[in-house]
Amino acid sequence: MTEVVIAGIGQTEVGEHWDIGLRDLAYAAIHDAIQDAGGLKPQSLFVGNMLAPNLSRQAHVGALLADYAGLLGIEAVTVEAAGASGGAALRQGYLAVASGFVDVALVVGVEKFTDKVGGEVDEALATTADSDFESVQGMTPAAQAALLMKRYMHEYQVPADGFAGFALTSHANGAGNKSAMYRKAIKPEVYAKAEMVSDPLNMFDMAPNVDGAAALVLTRRELLPSSFKNPLVKIAGSASASGTLALHDRKDMLFFETSHLSAGKAMKQVGMTLDGIDFFEYHDVFSIFAALQLEAVGFAVKGSGWKLAADGSIGLKGTIPCATMGGMKARGFPGGAAGVYQAVEAATQLRGQAGANQVADARFGLIQSLGGPASTAVSHILQKLDS
Amino acid sequence: MTEVVIAGIGQTEVGEHWDIGLRDLAYAAIHDAIQDAGGLKPQSLFVGNMLAPNLSRQAHVGALLADYAGLLGIEAVTVEAAGASGGAALRQGYLAVASGFVDVALVVGVEKFTDKVGGEVDEALATTADSDFESVQGMTPAAQAALLMKRYMHEYQVPADGFAGFALTSHANGAGNKSAMYRKAIKPEVYAKAEMVSDPLNMFDMAPNVDGAAALVLTRRELLPSSFKNPLVKIAGSASASGTLALHDRKDMLFFETSHLSAGKAMKQVGMTLDGIDFFEYHDVFSIFAALQLEAVGFAVKGSGWKLAADGSIGLKGTIPCATMGGMKARGFPGGAAGVYQAVEAATQLRGQAGANQVADARFGLIQSLGGPASTAVSHILQKLDS
Q1: What is the per-residue pLDDT across A241-264, written as a single tens digit (0 to 9) for each?
Q2: Do strands B44-48 and B75-80 pair parallel, antiparallel, or not at all (unpaired)?
């Protein structure tokens, strides 16, 4: 059986990188990942990017980054599935290596949000919704999330501070991640006083759209040189599913079908159940997404995902640690790079290098990258291998 | 040995589809391809699209099309490499099926240019060049091509009408393709009188940016039902290479390194030389690109690619028929769909269904999809299989 392993990881600090362009930001992560992989030379580059053609007026990012990283001539392509672009790029890299067509693949996620002002960013983000039926009406991702959240709170009688636990957990974990944008734990009072964005969704129910790049070097286990020293992390499961872009097209708005489907497929590939998952990197661009993912994947029954945040179950010592390095909320949401950050963070956990944030005895991590309100969901299961 | 075959093909007429949106256009091609494939049900969708996030304000096209085509739940992703997006999507679909991870893949190329006026299209197209060093200066793809053409004409002393043969050939072939935008042969006088776009590049040295969608259903040969009736076409070779976006970063502007590399790799996979190639679908968005591809692939020595057009060698009965269904010039250039059109047309030739445009005894076709001035080149070799 072919074993695809993560040989190298790299990431930049997430934040407002006004002094660094798209290519330099990506290069920083690429450099670190290749160095971490002991200099393995990639033959293919898969870039996860969401909005560069709009926000940086730069399409064709694959070839651009291959050249800039000193990899001129290799295969290079951009993979886009809105916010799931990073997860989708990882999956294409995984397929290329697992198939044997490519020996070493480089997966890079990169996004630059903060060179533009809020209105431009919102307009660009709205391209990920259904342009003919949603964004044309002024619907933005935050508005979609607010609709879901309002319906959820009504349906399940969730109190006003019901979602606070998601932000509290993420910020507590962000404090231990030197690549995170926000490294300070917050108190419940801060959540309670947060400004409203789109009622009932407040500033702490959504992640900041910021700049960042993360990279992975993938190869097959047997191709690693004998001198290779990093603890081994394998991509044990990989699956992707698509759903409707528009919320109104769904039978049940409050069930993330794609999240359920892709996680289920990935677990089936590994031959495991949720019991074996030691931590879960969800796609908490909005706290409501985190709640719905916990339910769709199966960690909570419908309507009770928020309780796992409220009662501490998702904490580092809880029953299912989530957003272990700060998640989208505190690490920050770097668009198409987000899914690659998840993989870098999960690999860090499984290598046992997560420092104060280490999940004890972590052997299996589930990561899930969403595009839109789970219009796309890409799930991967990462596994610690015995050396 | 795994054999990936093209089980179904579909394409819309290329032109100004003001009455059809992005999703409807794509669906028309998807419908025909799936029907042509006898109803095979895809598990994965790879969309080649170049500019929808800009021109249609629609990102996340993968999930959108999967849903609209009645394929809700399947894996769906957009693949972008500027003008090579279609070729790159085909390659991802090929990898997915060849690897065994996916049994049936749907590859769709779609682009809508004509809902926008020229200036907006030019601005969007310029995102495919190097934004920090080229497009920021006002450089558009047409300007890049004009620079190359001028240098080429100077270097090799090419006469003013030296490139006419490319347009004449494409238009002659477009006449026999009912999906082509221009179906009328043109005379040398028309080329000679054409308006200048960017000296020395005239209206007939560039392809029209228009709307279109094309689709392919890929599977492994052994999965075809016994009732399957279409003549069999196999994807025998597949390779992609990247180069610099900016022209000024190249050692030799007049050699399309990526074109050379990717075609060479694809032929090596098949274990064949150029002698075995019966026709070549080049990426003639600009006549100078066609000339440089003929040289880079090896059909002509450096500086003499244009002569193959001038002396009729690229005609349907020539030594190396090119743009056999009209190419980008006469079929039209539907952006990210262009590479998929190439595959549909090559499959039509290899099935022996090209009508008046049939290349006699065609067994191997080389198709090459370019992004920018060959900043990306994706090459595929399609092969007719004996039934």
Answers
A1: 999 999 999 999 999 999 999 999
A2: parallel
**Residue A219 in 3-state DSSP?**
strand
pLDDT score, position A190 = 96
Task: Answer yes or no: are the C-beta atoms of B194 and B203 closer than 8 Å.
Answer: yes
What separation in angstroms does the CA of A77 have from each of A88, A331, A368, B260, B375? 12, 26, 22, 18, 11
**A179, A195, A223 - which closes a domain:** A223
Residue A80: pLDDT band with limits 50, 70, 90: very high
Return d(Cα B54, Cα B70) in angstroms, integer.
26
- Average pLDDT over chain B reads 97
State whether B318 and B367 are in the same domain: yes
| Sign of the CA dihedral with A60 first, then A139, A379, and A164 last | positive
Chain-chain contact of A77 with B81 (C-beta, under 8 angstroms): yes
Is the pLDDT score of A387 beyond 90?
no
Write down the ipTM of this complex: 0.97
Residue A328's CATH number:
3.40.47.10
Residues in chain B with CB shorter than 8 Å from the CB of A96 are: 95
Whole-number pLDDT of residue B351: 98
Domain assignment present for A123: no
Rounded to 10°, the helix B164-174/B287-297 angle is: 100
Q: Are A174 and A14 in contact, with CB atoms under 8 Å apart? A: no
Q: Alpha-carbon distance A362 to A283, whole Å?
A: 20
* Backbone dihedral angles phi then psi of residue A330, each to the nearest 5 degrees: -105, -35
Same domain? For B156 and B292 the reply is yes
Domain count, chain A: 2
Same domain for A81 and A47: yes
Q: Which residues contact B154 (CB under 8 A, 6 or more apart)?
A: none
Name the residue among B99, B100, B96, B34 with its Cα closest to residue B65: B34
Instruction: Please state, in angstroms and rounded to a whole number, the distance separating the CA atoms of residues A323 and A285.
Output: 11
Closest CA to A17 of A7, A32, A9, A27: A27
| DSSP assignments along A23-50, one per residue | HHHHHHHHHHHHHHTTTPPPSEEEEE-S
Domain range enclosing A13: 4-117+209-223
Q: What is the pLDDT of residue A161?
A: 96
pTM of the entire predicted model? 0.98
Minimal Cβ distance to A60: which of B75, B82, B96: B82
Note the pLDDT tens digit of each residue in B296-328.
Answer: 999 999 999 999 999 999 999 999 999 999 999
Mean pLDDT confidence for B348-363 = 98
Band the pLDDT of A1: cuts 50, 70, 90: low
CB contact under 8 A, B242 and A74: yes
What span, in angstroms and rounded, lies between the C-alpha atoms of B142 and B319?
Answer: 29
List, as ranges, residues 40-59 from B with C-beta within 8 Å of A.
45, 50-51, 53-54, 56-59
A248 close contact with B: CB closer than 8 A:
no
Positive or negative, the Cα torsion across B166, B171, B172, B177?
Answer: positive
Burial letters A126-155, b for 16+ CB under 10 A, else e: bbbbbbbebbeeebbbbbbbbbbbeebbee
